[in-house]
Specification:
Order of helices and strands: HHHHEEHHHHEEEHHHHH
Structural class: mainly alpha
Distance between the termini: 50 Å
Shape: elongated
Number of strands: 5
């Protein structure tokens, strides 16, 4: 059908699935004839037995962790339709229902499973069926025709950030290593500019420009510029020598991380300080002041997919 509507596109996909299943079955039949393989009667193997067989193969390879996950997957399949279903009777409809069951309904011993776990169970179930294909139990894995990725997605941890109160605490807490005051300066600058540590290492005074009363920093790694506010400019070195690097003599990254850890502990913060946390905090500050998502995305060169992660961060914070 011409791809002029969603209905036609969906119909084409169904047709292609049916055609692929028919092609696979015919291919299996032709190969059996060509190589003199006797056509077997449909196997009576049940899905519980197939899972046990796949678990044994995994254990024989020494992968006890995956074998444990296979046993957990078996419990989920049992809760779905039991373990007596014949492997040859497992079709696209069965697999489609299993995906929905794991995604929405299945409750394990300690509660509803996460989407990440549901996805892992589906992959293990698919491997079980692939093993059945390899052993000639079935001709094709029916999970090949089921949309999984659009329904069960990996869970990503919420992006961490510092609240306004935590930022104020840091501002009022001296750097624990008095000989390295620049570490506090660069971290606070990152919070108010989104600059990464590599960006700060290569930052030069000539990258800071003022035009019509507005000061900005050119970020060469992203081929963009970030405005400098009064809150961010106070963390620039107080010097009259505006040549070369802005921050000279910064310690190695490992020493910086160690100082940040001590500083955070001294400030009584639960989160470990790092520059990714500082960058997330910058976006948090922008969004809480009402900056449009599109503006943030354009200014920082972030994709819509990345911005969705930051919006989840905001939504989770509003629930607290």
């Amino acid at each position: 059908l011409p791809k002029t509507s969603k209905r036609n596109i969906a119909a084409n996909k169904r047709t292609m699935k049916e055609a692929e299943a028919a092609r696979a079955a015919k291919e299996n039949e032709l190969l059996a004839v060509r190589f003199g393989i006797e056509t077997k009667e449909p196997s009576a193997m049940r899905i519980g037995e197939a899972i046990d067989e796949y678990e044994k193969i995994t254990l024989d390879k020494g992968d006890a962790s995956t074998a444990c996950n296979i046993r957990s997957m078996k419990k989920a399949v049992d809760a779905y339709r039991g373990l007596d279903t014949k492997v040859v009777d497992i079709d696209e409809s069965y697999c489609d229902g299993l995906v929905d069951f794991l995604h929405k309904d299945y409750t394990a011993q300690f509660g509803k499973i996460s989407m990440t776990t549901a996805r892992a169970y589906i992959y293990l179930f698919s491997s079980t069926l692939n093993n059945a294909v390899a052993n000639g139990i079935i001709g094709v894995n029916p999970l090949r025709f089921v949309n999984i990725h659009g329904r069960i997605t990996r869970e990503r941890p919420l992006k961490k950030f510092l609240t306004v109160d935590e930022i104020k605490i840091l501002m009022n807490t001296p750097c624990p290593v008095m000989s390295r005051p620049q570490v506090k300066q660069v971290f606070m600058l990152s919070i108010f500019t989104y600059l990464s540590y590599p960006d700060i290492l290569t930052l030069k005074w000539k990258d800071i420009k003022t035009n019509e009363g507005k000061t900005s920093i050119a970020v060469h790694s992203r081929k963009t510029s970030v405005p400098l506010t009064d809150a961010s400019m106070r963390w620039l070195p107080d010097t009259t020598n505006h040549r070369g690097l802005v921050f000279k003599g910064l310690p190695q990254r490992t020493e910086v991380n160690n100082i940040l850890r001590k500083w955070g502990e001294k400030a009584g913060l639960e989160q470990t300080l790092n520059f990714r946390l500082a960058q997330n905090t910058f976006i948090y500050l922008l969004l809480t002041t009402g900056t449009d998502i599109g503006t943030v995305s354009c200014m920082l060169g972030l994709t819509p997919k990345t911005m969705r992660g930051y919006m989840k961060m905001m939504t989770a914070n509003q629930r607290k």
